[in-house]
Amino acid sequence: MMDMVLRLGAGVRVATDVTGVLRAAVDSLVPEVGDLAVALARRPGDRDLVEAAHGNPARQEQVREAVERLAPELSAAGRQHAKNGDRRWMWVPNTQSYSMRRLTGGHPALEELLETLGIRSLIVVGLGRKTDPFGALAVARTSEGSPFHASEFAVVRVLAHRTTLALNAAQLHDLVLDADATQARFDQALSKWTQVFNLASWGAAVVGGEDRRIDAVNPAFARLHGYPDPEQLLGRCFTDFLPPGAEDETVRWPSDATRLPDAYESEHRRAGGTVFPALTNVTALSGDQPTFIVTVQDLGPLKRAEERLQRAQRMEAVGRLAGGVAHEVNNMMTIILGFSDLLSRSPELPAPLQRDVDEIQKAATRAGHITRQLLAYSRRQVLEPTVLDLDLVVEEMTRALRPLLPVHTRVEARPGAGGTRVRADRAQLEQVVINLAFNARDAMPRGGQITIGTGVRQLDERLGREKIGIPIVPGSYICFEVRDTGMGISEEVRDHLFEPFFTTKDAGHGTGLGLATVYGIVKQSGGYVWADANPGGGTTFTVCLPEVALEEDASAETAADASHSRPGETVLVVEDEEGVRELAARILRDEGYHVMEARTGREAMEALDHVDRLDLVLMDLVMPDMGGSEARDHILKRRPDVAVLYMSGYPKDDVLQRPHIEGGDPFLAKPFTREGLTERVREILDAPRLS
Ligand code: ADP
Questions:
Q1: Cα 81 vs. chain centroid, distance in angstroms?
Q2: 259 lines ligand 1 (CB under 6 A)
């Protein structure tokens, strides 16, 4: 028998988990001891574990399921058995001669189970200690007349004891495995949070004790405060990172962990002594000693972006004001310039007065120049955009600039846009290049190098925020850079560069309108401009204009052919500003044209009824009753062959909403000179027309 005991227990001893032990126990009993064996282990708070073995392996699973289903009843019967003072085992050599009620504890379902399984002889032994039972091991025989003997009962009891020991060991083993899994999960979580701490872009510190000393900091906190190594900061007082003389902000920290985190703005000090704006957030941790989690964010970039946005908004406001004033002054200048011109041509003008008139003209020309720049800045010019090859424009401009620059100032073109096109007003674009190049020249009083390069760039919103301060339309842009080797620009100057009348030059040398003009022209052309200080000294201005699809072709510029009127040529001047209208009419009459005048679009329509021949309508873009383009449409309906020349300089709504006149309609900028007007009129009348 001893042999048998050793053999049966072998499988149980090597199993390491609870299921394995139960499995080994039932397998060692079938078919050696009985033809049916079941092991059941109760698991508090979990499913009962049941393993079964059957002489007919096909029925094994059926037995297991039946027992598993009845596990609660089986346990209850076992408990009842123990309560009745019975031992924790049961040996029933012949079930037929045994009280079924006693056997099943009065559970009909168990009675049915025994019936179904056809059990004739049965041994049941409890598993676990008497004080802590946790299951049972049962073995049965189903054939008539083969009862279990005492020796077999003894063997099963020994096996149950071994199974109990093995189950205890397996449970311990499971606990160890559970502990290992918990430890692994904990390690994983810890590693994740350590990475969050170490890789975060915000500075974080654990600060403890009454004197607020640093227990731990992340690399971002060290970097933010100008230290390469976080270790250097351990043990330092938090107040070491505040500027000298600043209030000790740690006194504001929350006194207990139940209060919401405090966030406040203050200034922090870097290792080198510079100060930066910071947003600090403090949370108290509960414990005996006060401990705080402090996160610090650098508000510098945000503040700078805010300032840039405010500056851009200020520029808009100044632009509106400047544009409004310039428009009024511009009209006056047109009149002053025009009439003084007429006066100076008058043969009756006494010679001594000629000089006075010259002075009036000079002043008016200067004033006209300034108002034009202001109109450009406020983006209220009428542009005549054409499709241009930026590389060509830059190369031509570089050639044109060379003789205008001092001998020690070299200028070089570096085309790199590969023939890509932009849509811009050529004359205005040239003005931009000239203004930037002359500023570069002024920044290099002892000479130097100006390089004008072009290229294609992808602009994104981040660049817009950083360089210009406003959100930009992302996409592909054709850009040119004017780079100099001059004195460079300070951050402070850069903040004001494009403001009208901002100049660092001596009185008489700078008007502060050059870059304001550049800004207006570039913006009106849908582009962006910004300045950078070069790392090695000098400044680079970058202008980016939206790329144009290749199909659009550059339109040819026609040369003006100035000459007088042809006999009978009739011009209708439509202008609500009396002085300007009279001036234009008078100049044209002097040139021999037949001139009619109208104050409004409606009057112009009426005038059409009274003329047989009409060659040209010289018309203001914005008029009180109907816009210039609307009047044009009405006129062309009745006189399809008539040419239209707009006068511009008006900053009113029509121009603002439609700053580019349609279909390449020609225009004349105010203030205009006598030559400007007559040449433009002649040029249009001589141009071939569709009709
Ligand atoms: P102005 O040339 O009449 O002063 P601008 O609007 O053209 O007016 O320029 C404004 C100011 O911007 C200049 O006075 C100068 O301080 C600065 N600036 C412009 N271009 C440069 C440059 N290339 N290098 C250094 N400073 C510049």
A1: 74
A2: no
CA of 439 to the centre of ligand 1 (A): 5
Query: Residue whose CA is closest, atom 19 of ligand 1?
Result: 439
Name the fold adopted by 2-173. Answer: Beta-Lactamase (3.30.450)
Ligand 1 pocket residue status of 504, Cβ below 6 Å: yes
Domain residue spans of the chain: 2-173, 202-298, 386-546, 570-686
What is the pLDDT at residue 22?
Answer: 93
Ligand 1 atom nearest residue 500's Cα: 6
- Give residue 556's pLDDT: 37
**119 CB less than 6 Å from ligand 1?**
no
Cβ of 443 less than 6 Å from ligand 1: yes
pLDDT at 555: 42
pTM score, whole prediction:
0.53
For ligand 1, pick from 497, 498, 513, 542 the residue to mutate: most ligand atoms within 8 Å of CB: 497
Length of the chain: 691
Q: Which residue has the tokens 């032994």?
A: 125
CATH number of 202-298: 3.30.450.20
User: What distance in angstroms lies between residue 479's CA and the mean position of ligand 1's atoms?
Assistant: 20
| Nearest residue (CA) to ligand 1, atom 21 | 439
Report the residue among 433, 436, 439 best suited for mutation to probe ligand 1: largest number of ligand atoms under 8 A from its CB: 439
What CA–CA distance (Å, rounded) separates 527 from 525? 6
Question: Of all atoms in ligand 1, which is nearest to the CA of residue 504?
Answer: 14
Handedness of CA 449, 452, 457, 462 (dihedral sign): positive
Residue 553 tokens, joined: 């072709």
Which CATH superfamily does the domain covering 386-546 fall into?
A: Histidine kinase-like ATPase, C-terminal domain (3.30.565.10)
> What pLDDT score was predicted for residue 1?
59
Three-class HEC string of 15-49: CCCHHHHHHHHHHHHCCCCCCEEEEEECCCCCCCE
Ligand 1 atom 11, closest CA: 503
Ligand 1 atom at minimal distance to the Cα of residue 438: 2
Distance 431 CA to ligand 1 centre (A): 15
Count of CB atoms situated within 10 Å of the CB of 272: 7
Which residues 6+ apart lie within 8 Å of 484 measured at CB?
Answer: 440, 443, 444, 448, 449, 450, 451, 538, 539, 540
Name all contacts of 487-491 with Cβ < 8 Å and 24+ positions apart: 487/443, 487/444, 487/537, 487/538, 488/443, 488/533, 488/534, 488/537, 488/538, 488/539, 489/531, 489/533, 489/539, 490/533
Q: At what angle do helices 18-29 and 2-14 cross, to 10 degrees?
A: 150
Dump strand ranges (E) for 436-569: 448-459, 475-484, 528-533, 539-548
> Which residue is closest in CA terms to ligand 1's atom 14?
503
Ligand 1 pocket, 514 CB below 6 A?
A: yes
Q: Can you name the CATH fold of 570-686?
A: Rossmann fold (3.40.50)
Could you tell me if the CB of 408 is within 6 A of ligand 1? Answer: no
Point out the ligand 1 atom lying closest to the alpha carbon of residue 538.
24
List average pLDDT for each run of 10 residues in the chain, which is 691 residues long.
68 82 92 93 82 91 90 81 72 86 81 89 89 88 89 91 89 85 93 92 91 94 95 94 89 81 89 94 84 93 84 82 84 88 88 90 87 80 79 91 92 88 87 94 95 93 80 89 95 88 85 91 90 93 85 41 66 88 88 88 85 88 74 85 80 42 68 83 78 43
* 172 HSE (CA, 13 A, CB side): 7
Ligand 1 touching residue 673 (CB < 6 A): no
Domains 2-173 and 386-546 share a fold: no
- DSSP letter assigned to residue 551: T
Half-sphere exposure at residue 521, Cβ-oriented, CA atoms within 13 angstroms = 25
